[in-house]
Amino acid sequence: MTHKPFKAVIPAAGLGTRFLPATKAMPKEMLPVVDKPAIQYVVEEATQAGIDDVLIIIGRNKNNLSNHFDSVPELESNLAKKGDQEKLEKVQRSSDLADIHFVRQGEPRGLGHAVLRAKAHVGDHPFAVLLGDDLIDERDPLLTTMLEQYERTGAAIVALLEVPEDSIHLYGAAAVETTEIDGVVKVTGLVEKPAKEDAPSNYAVIGRYVLSPDVFGILERTEPGKGGEIQLTDALQELAANPDGPGVYGVVFRGRRYDTGDRVDYIKAIVQLAADREDLGPALRPWFKDFAANL
Ligand code: G1P
């Protein structure tokens, strides 16, 4: 299939109320996960999948976010003078990563509304949507597989994770059918945050989507849904229900994912990622064991 290069869209305009007061003057996507803001992991994931045009949808406190992806000449020359190459590279990495653009959401009216704000920038390119609450381990490529499935089907692609049935009400849930490809399912229906009894399955949509720009036309007429918000899930349900279109497929993710959406998961993500790191793990692991033994 020939199409224009993929772009990436990262919604980062939520209020982050679960992390107050840390998010009073800072978007939650800027909270550090070990020593990098969450949003940098997500931008790196997009660039690793070969996408170098990234649009971040920002809300209030946008300056922190845009500053992070700008160069900081005085800090850089200071580190260069000191000969601290390692730190200099860390500082420069976020500004060299990708071609990063910003657009404001204005009032937060839901994920579908945030994605619709990307319409002018995305134009007629297919695009990936990456939510900063879900971090995907760089050793377990998910987005690359999703882009391949988009190439193969021309359909909307969502990432799916099997979750315990008691957790499905926190996610978009998918009704699925198997396909001839292991790990790829056809999505026949989607419901945003259903009660356990109403969930079509325990396949949860996690925060990665690959979409054609046709979705913007649907989002424009999508009425507010769950929580009074314009839901991306509802627009995707329309695609899944259309027998004349390419539909929706799901890539079932079985790798390592770190949820940073609430405080407990955020702390777990930091502990897991730090324990795994070559520079921090050796010092931390014995301490964790000792700490756990004395709980
Ligand atoms: C959003 C989507 C939901 C999806 C989830 C993944 O919800 O609306 O369908 O399952 O992201 O993280 P949120 O977590 O932003 O409320």
TrEMBL record:
GO terms assigned for molecular function: UTP:glucose-1-phosphate uridylyltransferase activity
Superkingdom of origin: Bacteria
EC number(s) stated in the UniProt entry for this protein: 2.7.7.9
Keywords of this entry: Nucleotidyltransferase, Transferase
Name of the top EC class for this enzyme: transferase
Residue intervals of the Nucleotidyl transferase domain: 7-273
Protein's UniProt keywords contain Transmembrane helix: no
Catalytic reaction equation(s): alpha-D-glucose 1-phosphate + UTP + H(+) = UDP-alpha-D-glucose + diphosphate
Record carries keyword Transmembrane: no
Protein family membership: Belongs to the UDPGP type 2 family.
Protein name according to UniProt: UTP--glucose-1-phosphate uridylyltransferase
Species of origin: Microbacterium ureisolvens
